[in-house]
Amino acid sequence: MRSPNWAFAVLLILVGSLTAPLWGEEEDMSGAKASDFIKSRAYIGVFGISSTIDQWGDFSGVNSFTTSSAVTTGNPEVDLIPSITRQFGWGALFGYREGPWAGELSFMRSDHTASYISSGPATTTTPASLQSIDFNLKRYFFTQYPLQPFLNLGIAFPWLWVHHFSYLTDTASPPNIVSTDDETISGIGMNLGLGVEFYFENDFSLVGGLFQRWGEFDQINGAAKIPFNELYFDGDPNDVGALAGNGLTFYFGATVGVE
How far apart, in whole angstroms, are the C-alpha atoms of residue 152 and residue 140? Predict the structure, then answer.
């Protein structure tokens, strides 16, 4: 239930190639200097995003969770793990900057089409939304100029809501669907990214960049609210591990300073 992510390797190469020369431009990391274009600011912002969960891992649209044999009461629960398309969305943030450092709290949402390939093969599609609350730390370079590149590292709390991809079955062979419900797959992740911000003045900027997220989804809220450790992966009673859900996100937006 793990898959390689080539975007991870590419991003590390980019970060490694940029870090050494950029870091040399800023020897004093203790705070703002007299030559800094921005010394300190609190700000809010909005931005557009393009996001997804990679389709060549656990979220490939062919996997599912079913009730463990340890659960002996009620109807068995089946939770389909979809693939999702890359789609555009939006986000909002609040941040504070001091010298070359900034901390940000953000929320992001994008709406997708979720797909699942069942026997046949037949493909079922349904609406889905990917949402996340993120905490990011940013380090700016060339801070004496209006145009400033940055690196960011953060922690994310993502969740994927999928319409009617969880259902209860009876004990017939083959089983019949008794009822369907929405499912929410949630977890935790790490963000690593880079970008650039252009300051027109202390009160306004344009910002854009990308970040790679490595996510581990270890909670499913489905039709019967069965705990994750009582569900097993693709019919294997010995496989109850978390789902790997990685993805590359692009964003562009603006920030406004607040007093």
Answer: 9
